[in-house]
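Sanity check

After download, print the first record. It should look like this:
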Amino acid sequence: MVEVRAQRAAKPLIEVHESPEDLARSVAGALLTRLAEIQASGREPQIGLTGGTIADAMHRELARMADSFEVDWSRVVIWFGDERFVPAGSPERNAGQARAAFLDAVGATRAYAVPSADEVATAEDAAEAYSTTIKEHGRGGFDVLMLGIGPDGHVASLFPGHPALACDDKIACAVHDSPKPPPDRVTLTFGALARATEVWFLASGEGKADAVAAAIAEHGTVEQTPARGVTGLSATVWHLDRDSASHL
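Expected structure tokens:
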């Protein structure tokens, strides 16, 4: 589906919204429009979802707005950029949050979740199983990959200075001793995250302002700010509210 090209989009696009509510509503509308366009072209879109407060708000907007767009959600393939390795019923699961917010409401039946701690013994087992699923159903990459950014600049579950940053010979890898609880996680690697036609970052709140500025700055390292390591093949868009954009 996605042909990996050497040339990346030169500069990120920055969209600043007046409030978190405006951000969530705008991104939901943009995603629904993009999904409808892809399906109209005869393809099944593949998207990557993220977790977090602003993502949850955007997901709820998707559920609210879905009926206004011609999107067949049974033909949308959905992935998660990372997941907490906890039991399936844990409220910390990104997949569970997304299902409660919009997946069930819109009839999305092709959402592939990382195996939970109820299903496999270790995070390594979960990462291996998820990698296999992606190979079978991923078709080469994402049309749209949505990501958050942590106050420390982490993306997915790739944290500054963490050994998982070097795990780039796999699609997904286990993360232990995460600086943000829970300690055990599964994340897509930089190599997998790079296979996205468009990358959309979502950030809100002044607590993200320093990290956003570091990620977008002309100079810096991926080791210090992992979010710098993910760009789209054709576009990288930062969807921000006024507070998260305040240090740009």
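If your output differs, re-run the checksum step. Summary of this record's structure: The longest strand covers residues 196-203.
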